[in-house]
Amino acid sequence: MEPKIQLRGVTKAFGPKKVLTGVDLDVARGESVVIIGGSGTGKSVTLKCILGLLTPDSGSIRIDGREVTALSTAERDRVNRQVGMLFQGGALFDSLPVWENVAFGLLSRKQCGREEAREIAVGKLALVGLKPHIADAWPADLSIGMQKRVGLARAIATDPEIIFFDEPTTGLDPIMADMINELIVHVNREVGATALSISHDMESARKTGDRIAMLYQGRIVWTGHPDAIDGETDPVVDQFVHGRVDGPIKMQVRA
Q: Is this prediction's pTM over 0.70?
């Protein structure tokens, strides 16, 4: 079966700095794949290339078999209408109540009226464990964990076919991080979307991914089932997964 998302030989450089040097990755329909890797390895750049926020220097990116690297702005917008996104920092609009944050995509695209949009928002908030009265709260009144849940509700508000998760557990304590992981698994199951996450959190990757892919030096160097990664003997994978200082991955430390 044709992959929902397919990358072949994707490269991206910023001046002399080569970030992606040939990324190959398939994400099947309905599958949840987590890209892991250290800071600065190109996880976010990969995601931005798929979303069309960055244009790769070379290579192919296909969604539903369609090449998307050279689409017009209007064509790209149509493709992105099937996409939901949970941003790393929540990225909620402080000037809008929670329900308008959740329904932002519906309202901006004029897919429904405000009354219907609010009903949808309340339903999506319930799906991530938030009660109806939260709909009228302001983002500043919510804890970081609740803001993450609101961001997750917004990501699924349009019933997307694809959901991207950008470091979903960053900044959360272990208990709240585990709660967000559980919600991601639950939401993916309920919505039936294809999910692609980027993370450096191995616990999150193990819990939310059907498959894990490791990015190192601009390429995917390992893919496999979460249960297989702890026993992987590749020194790069072994060092990252177990958080060892010694190994082929060298941290850049400025004096």
A: yes
